[in-house]
Write a structure and sequence with these properties.
- Its main location: membrane.
- It comes from Rhizobium deserti.
- Keywords: Membrane, Transmembrane, Transmembrane helix, Transport.
- It is found in: Cell membrane.
- Pfam families: BPD_transp_1 (PF00528).
- The structure is a single chain.
- By secondary structure, the protein is mainly α.
- It has a single domain, classed as MetI-like (MetI-like fold, Orthogonal Bundle).
- It is built from 13 helices and two strands; from the N terminus they run H-E-E-H-H-H-H-H-H-H-H-H-H-H-H.
- A two-stranded antiparallel sheet has the order 1-2.
- Strand 1 and strand 2 form a beta hairpin.
- Helix 2 packs across helix 13.
- The relative contact order is 0.13.
- The mean pLDDT is 87.
């Protein structure tokens, strides 16, 4: 017996898909247009071909910013994924503590990015900030404005504080979806807590962990507002990530051609890295 599929539901979401595609296509076409042309103002354009791409790919400035981005994303994933799993494992599964913990976990996610940057900018100041004053009183020479290491630590801790909750909520959703029968069977077999985590909880969280890794990689690799508000890309260029460098190039220097070419290369790198993460994690999931 052949099953008949009803595809009429697509007509309900088709207007939204068309609207999103249209709103995304216009900016993309504009960026592509600027990336292959040069302009001296007055809306006059001159064909440049791949010159801007060649300039970007041979620029030490681009590769240094890319290295900072990759390092930052690697540190963020190495900290937030294990920390998110640990917190989710220790959250209550029933009772009044469940809504309380969920609300507390969701609070950092509700704060706008620019507000997060402002909070940590003030929080880390040595003269009026609580963190800066406490570290100074303990004898630490902490100053994120002049010390690159302090600036990196501040930006990393800020991101961990802001976004670990997302990993926690995703992992918690994966944990509560595991049927009790698995835990009962493990209890009968006398499995240790590590064995329960290794053979029951972790495999069942594979899908949500894939989403968490992809989301956190893309967000951390595209980070702009928080470090720009806190450090402005400094001291020097120590926290100048690709997004900050791109804005400086496009708005500060008004080099629209190189900025457009850089944004396309930036997008392709994010797409490639996300595909690699997805392929590796889904292949390991299939092997297991």
């Amino acid at each position: 017996m052949n099953k008949t599929w009803n595809n009429k539901a697509w007509f309900l979401v088709l207007p939204v898909l068309l609207l999103v595609a249209f709103s995304a296509a216009i900016p993309l076409m504009t960026v592509v247009n600027y990336s292959v042309q040069d302009t001296f103002g007055n809306n006059e354009f001159f064909w440049a071909g791949t010159d801007w791409f060649d300039e970007i790919l041979h620029s030490p400035r681009f590769w240094e910013a890319l290295q900072r981005n990759l390092l930052f994303s690697f540190i963020i994933l190495a900290l937030e994924i294990p920390l998110g799993i640990f917190i989710a494992l220790n959250m209550p599964k029933k009772g009044l503590g469940v809504p309380v913990c969920l609300v507390l976990m969701a609070l950092p996610l509700l704060i706008p990015w620019n507000v997060v940057g402002t909070i940590w900018q003030v929080f880390g100041r040595v003269d009026i900030g609580l963190l800066g004053r406490v570290l100074a009183s303990l004898g630490f020479d902490y100053n994120y404005v002049r010390d690159p290491i302090d600036a990196w630590i501040t930006v990393i801790v800020m991101d961990v504080w802001h976004w670990t909750s997302l990993v926690v909520l995703l992992c918690y959703a994966g944990l509560v979806s595991i049927p009790d029968a698995y835990y009962q069977a493990a209890k009968i077999d006398g499995a240790s807590r590590w064995s329960v985590f290794r053979y029951i909880q972790l495999p069942k969280m594979n899908r949500v962990l894939l989403i968490a890794v992809l989301l956190r990689f893309m967000d951390s690799f595209m980070i702009y507002t928080e470090p720009f508000v806190v450090t402005g890309g400094g001291p020097g260029n120590s926290t100048t990530f690709l997004s900050i460098d791109l804005v400086k190039m496009a708005i500060g220097q008004f080099d629209l051609g190189p900025a457009a070419a850089m944004s396309i290369v930036y997008f392709l790198i994010i797409l490639l890295m996300s595909w690699i993460f997805y392929t590796v994690m889904t292949s390991s999931d299939a092997d297991s």
